[in-house]
Design a protein that fits this description.
241 residues; four-stranded antiparallel beta sheet; three-stranded antiparallel beta sheet; 21% strand; elongated
């Protein structure tokens, strides 16, 4: 179950009665959309149904039976979530919006490049400023991933941007290949790898183009700056030699 501090109220008003449950706002919204695949325990802060959650008042059992055909809270809670409304305060809405904004900026930064600057990644600050200039408003009630396409549409008149992947071949010298290749191979999709006769390791990876700076930092870190890299322009030519 989630913390009470993180919970909001889902409220259903029907049959002249009010029923409330305490839930995680994102998980509850996912349930309403039919997109939640976890357990009910991951959604709720209490295994209980209230008439007024803030006061802890509970509805009469006969009212539960009349409306839901049961008094079992774990059967009633999903109905309250799916048929009711998620209640959030202005402060909670602002916090959710900020979380979604950060997630959205992170997703765009990791995947986008600047086609007018040799496909270089856009820094997060540029994405943030461009979204503000474009007047794009993040919806706190929708998943950040579902807002990416709309954000890109808003960004394109402001900055040159597109989503793209990049394929990079990297060679780690023998002294760093053992431990270094394990970290590098997890960075993206490993297209091909090969151990050389001198003990060095060569790998070809594909990953979101916006992560290039992060990738090269990782390569330099695991190799003490001794690795060699090159961009693979044609994925049909993945020869590592």
């Amino acid at each position: 179950m989630i913390s009470l501090d993180d919970a909001v109220t889902a409220r259903l008003e029907t049959h002249g009665e009010r029923f409330e449950v305490l839930v995680d706002p994102d998980a509850a919204l996912a349930m309403k959309r039919g997109e939640f695949e976890g357990e009910l325990e991951d959604v709720i802060a209490a295994r209980d149904v209230f008439e007024n959650a803030s006061r802890g008042d509970r509805p009469a059992e006969e009212d539960l039976e009349e409306v839901f055909g049961t008094t079992d809270p774990m059967e009633i809670i999903p109905e309250v979530i799916e048929r009711g409304e998620i209640q959030i305060t202005a402060e909670q809405r602002e916090e959710m919006q900020e979380q979604k904004r950060r997630s959205l900026v992170n997703t765009i930064t990791r995947n986008a490049i600047n086609p007018q600057m040799d496909d270089a990644p856009h820094p997060p600050e540029r994405i943030e400023n461009a979204l503000e200039e474009a007047g794009f408003t993040v919806d706190p009630m929708e998943p950040a991933d579902s807002q990416v396409d709309d954000a890109l549409e808003a960004l394109r008149p402001v900055i040159p941007i597109r989503f793209e992947e990049v394929t990079v071949a990297v060679q780690l010298p023998a002294d760093h290949a053992g431990s270094g290749q394990a970290q590098i191979r997890e960075f993206g999709e490993l297209e091909r790898e090969e151990w050389q006769a001198d003990g060095s390791w060569v790998g070809v990876l594909t990953f979101p183009a916006g992560m290039q700076n992060e990738f090269y930092d990782r390569v330099n870190e695991v190799s003490s700056g001794e690795a060699e890299t090159r961009i693979v322009k044609d994925k049909d030519d993945l020869n590592t030699r």
